[in-house]
User: Fold this.
Amino acid sequence: MKTASLIFLAAASFATASAALAQERVWRCGNEYTNNATVAQQKGCKVMEGGNVTVVQGTKPSGGGGGSASSGSGSSAARAPAGSPRVEGVDQRARDGEARSVLETELRKAEARQTELKKEYNNGEPEKQGSEGRNYQKYLDRVAEMKAELARNESDIAGIRREIGRLPGKPQAQ
Assistant:
């Protein structure tokens, strides 16, 4: 009997603690959430049912200066993330130049690696190594791995070229 009453007491205290931690109603207004009933009614928001919602307060983007009303927020969002600090033109050009040189170095390394991989791959017929003469499946597995590595490296090269193309300044000669 003592065990049953202890279990009941523990369950009751857990339920009380859970109720104390329960969240109040939360409404969803498009991509925004609120727990203010009057705001939710004004905007025609829907009550969230089910699980808890965690809300992290963010910073409001500052209104960029100098633009006309027709420039819109879409063009400023494409340039820099909201809340990012302004960088002077000279500093930004230096950063872009540094980024370009790093990307071009990475591109040269990836292209050199691709040349090595192609040479080793030998059009799908690389030289057999060690036990691969007796174990043909091992050879086929290595060839498939080499082919996948060639594809990954080619994808890396294409990605680096896209990033270089996105940078302002001198275009990449190809």
Summary: The two ends are 85 Å apart (CA to CA).
